[in-house]
Fold each of these.
Amino acid sequence: MTDEKLLEIRDWHSRSVEETSELLDSPSKGLTQEEVRRRLEVFGRNRLTPPKRRSASARFFSQFTNVLIFVLLGASVVTAVLGEWVDTGVILGVVLINAIIGFIQEGKAEAALEAIRKMLSLQASVQRDGRRLDVPAEELVPGDLVFLASGDKVPADLRLVRTKSLQLQESALTGESMPVEKSEQPVAPDAPLGDRTSMAYSSTLVTYGQGTGIVVASGDRTEIGRISSMLSQVEPMQTPLLAKMAVFGRWLTVAILALTAAIFAVGVLWRGYPVPAMFLAAVGIAVAAIPEGLPVVMTITLAIGVTRMARRNAIIRRLPAVETLGSVSVICSDKTGTLTRNELTVRAVRTAQRVYEVSGTGYAPRGAIFRGEEEVSPEAEPVLLEMARAAVLCNDASLHEEGGHWTLQGDPTDGALLTFGMKSMLDPKAEGAERPRDDLIPFESEHKFMATLHHDHHGRGEVFVK
């Protein structure tokens, strides 16, 4: 099959492993370096194409292209012609402040949108020329054989060919909070994205197990690349405020012109006033009828709203968009990672005799354990301490502190249990050294448990099950 035909295939999830390998000419020993170079020329590098960015000057001058600013600039010209320099200065000052605030906020918003293009992993483990290599993710091409392990970020869209208890966190694509168990078995051609268990998609995270997959899409042709392309193609929409101001401006212009024309005609034709005097009078009435204070107040109000929202880490790209929020009646939002942080926390522990409550949120191991209103020490509660030890040892997750912020590598449920163990004054590394793991039964949907076998250096073995 030609390279152009391969680019048109989207249903890799429904094709068998053998068919996928044959179509992509992907041998078990991996691609040769010569073939990789050829495919790089055909398919391009495995990175998202950055959108065309406007220059700083273009972003600044774009702040002067809405109807509110046009009204203000028109009012400033009229007041300058009439010699009202104080009013002119105030109006131009408002316009300039609005432009500066909009310029800064738009720069922050574009920087935030840039983050999606940094979601590809930096390195990938591949099979080439019969050897396993670590290569930059940018150099992956369709047909490459990629190895996945717990903690890896998937570097491209892969058709899985081998799995061993493989689970992926796909909340970045589907919003599903729980890891998805993967297999190499094909699924139906019309299966939705979240049900394509034979695929591993770029930017998702391996939380458990191991797997091997063939690259079927890279760069902009990945699912995350399609999302990035759709974001860059969103057409700008006029906000309700600007739409109403445009209508108001047209009606006001017509009304003012009609009024001044009528006054000019009456004064000249009926009352016999000189034409120059009536013209100046008509202009004065027109200027007085322009509500230059309205756009000033509206612009200042919107700028204050943007500043307040920025303090709460809400980035507003366009100044008038603040008003749009006031017109919202229904909000449809993804929950996982948006309204929530995709973090689980142990809140209560139940033994055969007692119920304990655990304080603290997230993965930071800061908190206490209570029995009723009384804080208890896990060392004084043997059953509680053993449950905490099981939570630490029967666990494949790890927690890392970076700049005062704790991050999880692994499954969110494992992360919550590990945090509970650390709140119980247990050190995962010390526990692992004192009771090394000898074997494990990984969690699978068929038996719905995980078990680990440990020894304590004194000939005593222990099995922990969760």
Amino acid sequence: MTDSTNLKESCAVFAVSSNSDKADVAPVIFSGLLALQHRGQESAGITVLKNGKLSTFKGLGLVIEVFSHNILKGLSAPIGIGHVRYSTYGSSDLINAQPIEFESKPKFALCFNGTIVNYEELRAELERDGYVFKTTSDSEVIGLLISKALKHGSDLTNAIIYGMEKLKGAYSAVLLSEDGTIIAFRDAYGFRPLCLGYLKDFEAYVFSSETSGLDAVDATFIEDVPPGSINVLKSGEVTRLKVRSSRHAHCMFEWVYFSRQDSIVEGVDVFSVRWRLGEKLAELNPIEADYVVAVPETSRIAALGFSSKSGIPIMEGFGVNRYALRTFIMPKDRGYFARLKLNPLRQALNGKRIILIDDSIVRGTTSKAIVSMLKKAGVKEVHLRITCPPLIAPCYMGVDFPTFEELIAHGRSVEEVRKLIGVDSLMYMTIDGLVKAIGLPRDELCLACLTGEYPDEIRPFLGKKVVVKK
């Protein structure tokens, strides 16, 4: 949690289409979104196809806060899509909640996970063509591009192809048409995950941002949706069209932080990656300490790996207020919200030397607050070990640290960061160690925030920002 609580990942999508007209998939979508809640906590929404018409309900807050039993009953239908959101573009207002309905022919609803880097250019182009925007979300650009192609005579599949050819950035999207078709499509780099499964009891295919969403509804995993593809689900069959090809650039943060520990992303299980990262940290810089302590929650597996490899016992270090909102939702004074959520266990840590494990340091604000709390609780030494290498460059593909100024490691040495945070020692994972722990070829991963080297089609939209490698 240390500074990963400052990370904002855009969203999650979930879609279900049953071959049985009597099936009610609304509770299935609800369960899937609940399992994906970690990817977005600002708003939630569901669109279903009921009696030939689209019906949408969405609201601000957590899934369990937005959907009551009666609301779900009103959404009873055999086909639907759902979404949870955290904004990386657009304000946190209800109007930006997804799915968003588009009044085209056919009418459709759309939701997506990602960030469109040429949003401003595409929005200006669409406004010149007479389209009026109702939101500040980049989702609307995707939908209006599709609507534009439909208006000019394209069928739905070709309209999506038109949109994909115009879009630059990260997107894993699902669309529900009033003719009963669900279409899932993904950018050619595969920045954000998307997978397909089958739910036997409902005779239903399921799309989900993570395999943990499939597991939550007892659906069987079939495959990851290939990057650059359109997947059309209609009448109980899935057909696929490959639209764009590129080298893959899967976001390394999916394994380090974003995805649930029980998910499998691109064939690589998150639990094992985090365990290996912990082991590797223990190998990189052996150090004497009394305990290994994880910063809840995503660092626990790495801490276990570190403890196993080093032989240093692991200790619960914090009381956790599980009713406090995750601090990355809060735009101001993250240190205050870290203190609200975490309280060091003085009785366990007083007078001890600890190795504190966390997944990343972004701005350093939360890290500094937690270290201060630990010192006040009587911890003798705090040695901070981070499973992610230093973040030196902004992300434009769906993680909300879009400026150099926000990154504590940009332009600073590890020793300078250590002094600012106030720890006794600081060590980051190496890039080679991270790549090895994930187990995919380096050229299939997006490491832009670690190296300043961006995928080719993203570079023209970086504006006047100049990446300075450190």
Amino acid sequence: MNSKEIVEEVSARDIRLIRFLYCDPAGVIRGKTVHASQIASKIDEGVGLTRAQNAVNLFEDLIQVDGMEPVGEVRIIPDHKTFTELPWLNRTASMFSDLREQDGSEWGGCTRTVLKHAIAKAHAAGIKVFAAFESEFYLAEDTDNGPQPWANGPVYSSSGMDRASAVMDDMVDNLTEQGFIVEQAINEYGPGQQEIVLRYTDALGAADQHLKFRDTIRGTAEVQHGLHASFAPKPFVDGIGSGAHLHFSLWSLDGKTNLLHNPLAQTEISEVGKNFVAGLLEHMPAVLALTCPSFVSYQRLKPHSWAGSTISWGYDNRECAVRVASPFTGREAESINLELKTSDGTSNPYLALAAVILAGLDGIEKKMTPPKPAHRDPALLTPEQQRECNIRPLPSNQLEALDALEKDELITDGLGELMARCILATRRAEHARALKEGDDWARLNTFSTF
């Protein structure tokens, strides 16, 4: 829709408030709300925002970042294509936005723009990236002992599905009403843990869709059912972790040919696909700082957790950081895709996808060759097999991942100078705060934010 059509839609639906949303470097969905009486002008000119807002980290601490001080403003400029009415609220809609300078030029603190640049680089290489985030989340209720899981049931069981059905049905309906295609809705391994999967789309659309998804799941649980829904990677100390596994595939620019497909070996990826995997593995320590960016993220990345705890890849191997997802018979050329297991719900999807694209493109450009794929859990391989597969440990904590990011020129160049400095400063401050306050404090605060 164009500006005129959005104004007409707001009037026709009797919408009262329109949220101009964005995702900050900490992965938090923020924004400002415009009244319908102002939408005709604000839809194009945007809303003012202090530059300092993007220097607020996950724990709501304002960190000193040069170029992100409380002096001067940028503009929140909504993308018309992301307009949806929010079914769990009364007369309210939202759009996701770019953050731009007052003259309309790009601002280095906009995470959505970082992804746009990575997409443009892929386009220049003749590649169109499609993606989808496969998100796990917990439903929880308030108790005297803090948030506790709600509607427990055996994993993938009909009884588990039944117990959460009142909430899950509303979530599915609210997603569908906004135009999203829901493929699966299931109960997961943890007590109260759920998963809803949306169909893949182009890379920018996938990131926008994931943020709309997060908002819908949280809003439906809180507003319609009085529950919490949290995408935190490790909300309960003894519980199963939650991921936001990133599925993606590489296509020709016309969208007709899946470049991962290997016609000579239908269940294996192509040479281009292997090059991409090699690049992703090469830059994995730095990429991790953006796909598993929070202090609590590293409490999930443990052996035998189906989360990926090593730099590794394999075919349908859910213990590897990168899994080649097996294609479906008769749809091999369309359905073969890659899955990044080391990705969770605290990530900013624009930055996560950008890092993956940049790393993989580097592998294609340099024709990197990946090591031998792991045929079983990397922790169970013999030392000789681990060497053959070049199994290496991931960064063990947030600080190690940030150090790797700082040293990786390809990824920091892709982020841009201001964004890179912002992420390093705000995330390191998070780490220091979490160490000071303790694991329980960090888990609870991450739970409530995500």
Amino acid sequence: MKFGILKTYVVPHPPIILPEIGRGREKDVNATGTAFKQIAREIAELAPDTIILSSPHAPLYRDAFFMSCSDIDRGDMGNFGFPSIKESLNNDLELADLVLQKAEQNDIPIFADTRENKLDHGSFVPLYFIRKEYKDFEFLRIGLSALSAKTHYLLGQIIAEAAEKLKRRVVFIASGDLSHALKEDGPYGYKPEGPKFDKMVTDILSRTAFDELLTMPKKLINEAAQCGLSSFQIMAGAFDGKDVEAELLSYEGTFGVGYAVCRFVPQKQNSDRQFLELQKTGGKTEDPYIALARHTIQEYISKGIIPDLPKDLPTEMTEKRAATFVSLHRNGNLRGCIGTLEPRQNSLASEIQNNAVSAATKDPRFSPLKVYELEDLEISVDVLLPIEKIKSLEELDPKKYGVIVSSGYRRGVLLPNLEGVDTVEEQVAIAREKAGIAANEKYSLERFEVIRHE
């Protein structure tokens, strides 16, 4: 008899697919409903001991995962006008306890909520179909977090290890919709990133290229207005080190939201699919400028210290002085940017350290960086070349030159080659507004080039 993760499924969670709620409109997503009924029959044939489900609509925390550790999970569809549609499930607390132990050993924060938790609709909709075919199972519900893709994947590994150790026969359900921006009349209107995201994710899932789930473009993820990716990353981690057979059972975008149903079956062991280990050993060595900024931020945020300079830095970083800017992004969004127009420290390396700490803790637009944000922090370091005075806008190019707009003591700076800044007029206007200089005031212009490390 096999133990551990027997099968996993990616599923959506549209309440309208329930006939009581859809009142006929469920027929508009008939392929999704048919796929749900199919996987419910498959699960009944497997007769698992436990069903684990990850849901984007369970309680969501920035710096930890939610896990329901009450004796029973109950829920209904009262929020959608049907409180009479109810479910009640006994939780697998022994499995939950082992997952918690392993998570603590791996520094993965999980909030074990022992209160009686109401089932969210991201969990309820899949369970509605499953429990029509099979009810003799215990349950374990997990939420998502704002932690990194790698951390979600690692949680999946831990879940699989715990299931195998306890000799549990487990089915994992990764609940999550794809893009909510597929149509103008959809919940978020239409964005071209919506169909692009759905095509990319369904392709990745069909090929079981789970490493690609961990490195999808952040801008695409944000613009697609999706809710399932982190759930799929947990599921993928449960298959780490194994070949996987996949089948996309259905995909629909009828209501402007992507609904995919996909089945995954583990096969033989394959060390080439240990994706976190491969990322550790197979990637390029990080640029020393970025590595220094990252190490400095990590030490300062986690320990409150600015570390000594590494002894193996390039001589250009230790023997030269230069002005720098350090920019921080998370999930495609700016998280801090601080810099200097003239060198203030005794070396370029010290300049980077000083500005890295300032970008992480002193940018007035943001709260100081938190420990949980460190893992997926994107860092760029710009080293400024000499500043030049200019007389007209014709001497600017927003892709090549940064700009300094000055009027008296007020000074606004904008770095070159920034996403969304395409014209000289836009560049100057943004820098001017940053300095509080009105359009009708006199101002002077300077330009500079940078060497960008990212």
